[in-house]
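Problem 3 from the worked examples.
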Amino acid sequence: MTTPEIAKMIDHSILHPTFTDDDLAEHCAIALKYNTATVCVKPYHTQMAAKILESSHVKICSVIGFPHGNSTISIKMDECKQVLDDGADEVDMVINIAKALQQDWDYIRQETQSINDLCVSRGALLKVIFETDYLNDDRDKITLCKICSDHKVAFVKTSTGYGFVKNLSGTYSYTGATNHDLILMRKNCAAPVQIKAAGGIRTLDDILRVKELGVTRVGATATIEIMEEAKKRFS
């Protein structure tokens, strides 16, 4: 691979709840320096990011229903319309996780179709976030892959990066993208549906590992470290 090819696999994540407007500007500069695929931003930062990056090749990805997926379909639709109006080229949507856990697949189909149809009508790409840490049953993940394939979404995505599971001790843990889930998603999605790995992608070797599993996009905050290593290794 080349260094530019690595960069174009990265959605540079600017999603931490504490990130301010100044943080957004700083991280957009990082994405611009390395020419990443996108910056992935909070909804209210979409318009600002689009203005900062308007003359560049870095696209704008905004999140909706983030991070817990619990908004109604109509609210997700309104949120999607807003971020598209504000300049988003791509939208990462968290599914209604509870509906998936209770196997209310009609609801998940309606949600997925509604948001994807809106994105397609506006020339935008949809990534559907499963939040795999919450889904213990591979059968549910396979069903989600089938639904996303049926509706021809652009990407399926493992995680938000914020799907913290509460343990019996009261502590929280998080795994994110695993080889098991990435292999399962690639195997059970139609060929045109791309795979985005998010959660735990922190090094160049992580990217190269998941690429071998069929991943074409990753969510990352460690873009500087990844790209500086890529420059050393591939230049």
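Problem 4, a separate protein:
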Amino acid sequence: MKDDAKPDLARFIDRWTIEYVRVYPHPIERVWRAITDPKEFRAWFIRGEIELRQGGSYRFESEDWTGLVLAIDPPRFIKFGNKNDPIGYFQYELSETDGGTRMRFVQHFPSSGVYEETPDDLGGDLPVPGTPWKPAFVGGWHEFWDSLGDHLDGVPAGSRLPPTEFQALAAALAQNGIRGGLLDAKGAARLVREFRRTERWNELNKIYREFIRTNCPPDV
């Protein structure tokens, strides 16, 4: 990830479809395992389960995010459908490139969907009303791809983000937890990383809010 105000942002394919492209300096089989093995992706993404076969079921984090594997071609391609959305999908496309693996992630939503803001969530607004592109959602994927890079390189997700004052405050709070017997050192370090990842996610929300407003294609 570039540490500047213009990181490698997503791209709109059309009004209802978005893509992210990353290149990781790792073999394609290693990247495939990181995105499809539950023991792997819980470290950088969220908890979940996947039956790695066409027609197999998947579930991420909760019963609200579940469906079927629509297509699979290990270690190059996997496409997921959502049980509550027969038209929408998201997919990973992996290909070998000089020095590693190119990952292209695509997500598509139906134009007939009803998309509403979630005011109580950070980044839960809709810069382009009537579309699904909340800054928290679009920025959340971006943060996950950066964390995947950390995981593939063998370091904890978020551990290479530049230090901030907020992170220092979180570390001080965690140290108080250790002294009070509420946290051990490992748990405290994990908590500080999660706070820093959340801060980075919120930074990305701000970047993507304007990005969505200026780049989402018009309704035709």
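Solution to problem 4. Confidence is low (pLDDT under 50) at residues 1-6. DSSP finds five helices and eight strands in the chain.
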